[in-house]
């Protein structure tokens, strides 16, 4: 009886680890993921490099930046998690990081904010920032 319980515990632990690994692998399929006040800490802390795009539906510069973020997410899919945070729906993160203008990109390395950009920067300029941050 005890052995069955032990095997069951081991099995459950193994399944949990496999699920976590699969979730992490599926998290970055070359597309930005949705980030909310609820999952923000987990996304930032569980991934080595994360770039959060703080945006809003009504923001024209945000719309201009969107295809650039999608391209970068695909290009850097093996290195960086890109997330999109709607500041109108997720004010907690916006307040915590003092986001006053959008679009704002927050660059996190090992859970720590290491850089930020404000405005719809061209792709080449963002690539330059990414290269500096990841160097």
Describe the protein.
With 135 residues, the chain is an alpha/beta fold. The protein has two domains: 1-29; 31-134, 3-Layer(aba) Sandwich (Glutaredoxin). 49% of the residues lie in helices and 21% in strands. The protein has five helices and five strands. The protein has a five-stranded mixed sheet with strand order 1-3-2-4-5. The longest helix has 26 residues, at 2-27. The N and C termini lie far apart (54 Å). The relative contact order is 0.16. The model has no long low-confidence stretch (mean pLDDT 90).
Q: Secondary-structure blueprint of this entry?
A:
Layout: H1 2-27, E1 33-35, H2 40-45, E2 49-55, H3 60-75, E3 81-86, H4 91-96, E4 104-109, E5 112-118, H5 123-134
Parallel strand pairs: 1-3, 2-3
Antiparallel strand pairs: 2-4, 4-5
Provide a concise account of the structure shown.
This protein is an alpha/beta fold. It has helices at residues 2-27, 40-45, 60-75, 91-96, 123-134, and strands at residues 33-35, 49-55, 81-86, 104-109, 112-118. Strands 1-3-2-4-5 form a five-stranded mixed β-sheet.
């Amino acid at each position: 009886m005890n052995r069955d319980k032990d095997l069951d515990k081991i099995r459950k632990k193994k399944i949990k680890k496999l699920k976590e690994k699969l979730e992490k692998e599926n998290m970055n399929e070359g597309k930005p993921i949705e980030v909310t006040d609820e999952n923000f800490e987990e996304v930032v802390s569980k991934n080595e490099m994360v770039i959060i795009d703080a945006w809003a539906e009504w923001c024209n510069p945000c719309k201009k930046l969107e295809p650039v973020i999608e391209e970068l997410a695909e290009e850097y899919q093996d290195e960086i998690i890109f997330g999109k945070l709607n500041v109108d729906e997720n004010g907690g993160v916006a307040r915590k990081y003092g986001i006053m203008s959008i679009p704002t990109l927050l660059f996190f390395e090992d859970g720590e904010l290491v850089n930020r950009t404000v405005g719809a920067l061209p792709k080449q300029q963002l690539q330059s920032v990414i290269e500096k941050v990841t160097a």
